[in-house]
Structure formats: C-alpha cells, structure tokens
Amino acid sequence: xxxxxxxxxxxxALRREIHRHNYQxxxxxxxxxRDDEYDQLMRELLQxxxxxxxxxxxxxxxxxxxxxxxxxxxxxPHRVPMLSLSNAFDEGDLREFDRRVHNNLPGEEVSYxxxxxxxxxxxxxxxxxxxxxxxxxxxxxEMGEDIxxxxxxxxxIPLRLTEEVPFIEVRGEAYMPKDSFLRLNEARxxxxxxxxxxxxxxAAGSLRQLDPRITASRNLSVFMYAIGFLAGNNPGSHDKxxxxxxxxxxxxxxxxxxCQDIQEVIAYCQQWQAKRFDLPYAIDGMVIKxxxxxxxxxxxxxxxxxxxxxxxxxPAEQAVSTIKDIxxx
Length: 329
Ligand SMILES: NC(=O)c1cnc(OC2CCCC2)nc1N
Fold this sequence. Notes:
The protein has helices at residues 2-27, 35-51, 91-104, 148-151, 178-190, 199-207, 212-216, 238-248, 262-274, 293-299, 323-328; strands at residues 75-77, 87-88, 112-118, 121-128, 131-137, 143-145, 167-175, 221-230, 256-259, 283-290, 309-313. It is α+β, with helices and mostly antiparallel strands. A hairpin with a 2-residue loop joins strand 4 and strand 5.
C-alpha cells in the first residue's frame, strides 16, 4: 500500500509537470525542458503506470495513442451548428460587409478581430470538467464525424484544461505544417504511393485514418479560434475569448489584431497577403469577426453563414507549377 501511495503521488506530480511542459512546447511554442529530460519524465511515468495500471487516467500524457484500429467513424450532432464563412475577394467586398454590419447596428461602435485563415480541417473539441471527451470534424455543419481517438494523438490538443470548466466546446483548425507536408510527400514518393495535393488534404487524410498510430505519425497541429458552446457566462468579446482559450491550455494563433474600423482591417489583410508564404503553415486568407459577442448575437446568421464574420480570400497564386514551389517560395 505504501508503495502504491508513493506511486500515486509521484504519478500525479509527473503528470502535472509533463502537462506543463506540453503546454509550453505545443501551445505556446516555448519549450521549457530539453527533449532528453522530457523523455526521461515520460519513461518514469510509463514505468510506474505499467507497475500500477490502476493509476492510469484518461488525461495521462501516456494515453495519447490508442492501439485499436477503428472500423469507421460515427456521426455526431454539433450542439451549435458549425457555420461556414461567406467570402470577400477584394477591398470592395470588405467595405460592403462593413456597411451591412453597420446597417444592422445603426449608430454603434464596432471593432473587428482579424485572424489568419488557416488552410486545414475545421474541428470541434468537447471538454467536460476540463477533460477532453470528444472531438469531431465539421462535417456538414450540423453533423460531424467522431474522430476523438485520432485527435487525442495531436499533442497541441490538451487532454486536460488548466481549469475544470463544467462544459465547453471549442472550434479550431487542424493542419499539417509545411515541412511535415513536404517530408510526408517525399516519403510517399519513395514508396511509390500517391502524393497529397496540398497540406489541407494531407491533414484531412491523416485525421480520417482508421489507425490512430498513423495519425500520430503525421505531426499534425491545431489553432483554436472560437468557443462553440459554453456552460456559464461568456468572456464578452471574441478577443477576450481567444485570450481565455490560451489560458485554458489551447494553442491560439498569435497573429490576430483588433481593428477599430474597416480601413485598419483592409491594411492588416494586405500586410499578410504580402507575407503569407513566410509562415510555416498554409493560410488561404484572413477571417474578420465582429469582436463583441453581444453584437454577434444580435447580428445572427443566415442559414449557412454568420452575419458577423467573413473570410477574405487571397487571390490564387498564378504561374506556380507545383504546391512544392508555392511552399518553398
Ligand atoms: N480557418 C480559420 O483559420 C478560421 C475558420 N473559421 C473561423 O471562424 C469560424 C467561427 C465563425 C464562423 C467561422 N475562424 C478562423 N480563424
């Protein structure tokens, strides 16, 4: 019993320390431990869990990669529909969006949050009492596919939040970094397998694998960008919501800006259009959202898209022969 008790304390201390290092490394891109020291902590935790299997918990960092190959994916309903963004293709479209917003909120101050539009696969993550319980694809917006087992293998997705929030559902984009995409296609070319056309297809293909060990090998990551459902009071503005998601342990893209008017929005979009290829991941535009959640609520949505958000799509790249050239520009 004494051993067991010592083992339990040690296991919990190890988990807390490894969770903290994972948060720093995967959510903040700011490692706080050398890889060999990290591996030593994981080895020790694995040894104790093998000795005392009853101590293993779902949020243990050793429980990311399940070994069971799935037969298929079950369809699950989204409690709040995952809407799709309508598109703006030029400055005029953005000004038109801004006019519509102000027509619907006459005389009100409106500030926008402008984010990079990550070119990946939209996902929904559900947490109960701070524990990751389910992950799904967007699907058709009403129903998604349950890919929990595969999402557990993505180290940027926390298995446990820093706060025991009763119930929260968070949305984001799963993506494959450019260098992982190039390496994966090189390996597939070597093996005579069909190549992925772009990082988005590679991410989607990796998340829809029936064997989570294959998903785990694909070096996927995520950026979380919206609270879907939240039991309790909301953070008031989208900007504060993003800051809170980061505090909870989620990886949130740092490149976002609060803009006081559409002119500032347009300038920020043009700034990123010029340097979109400097990023280590693919983006296909920007996303502009009204920041006040109360104004979002009043603006509402059409059947398929929110009235309080729009995507600004970058023009397609002309005269570039292959995706590899685009990525290596
Ligand atoms: N691909 C992205 O980076 C991205 C996608 N979607 C959203 O917002 C949702 C929430 C409101 C409608 C769409 N934000 C993003 N940054």
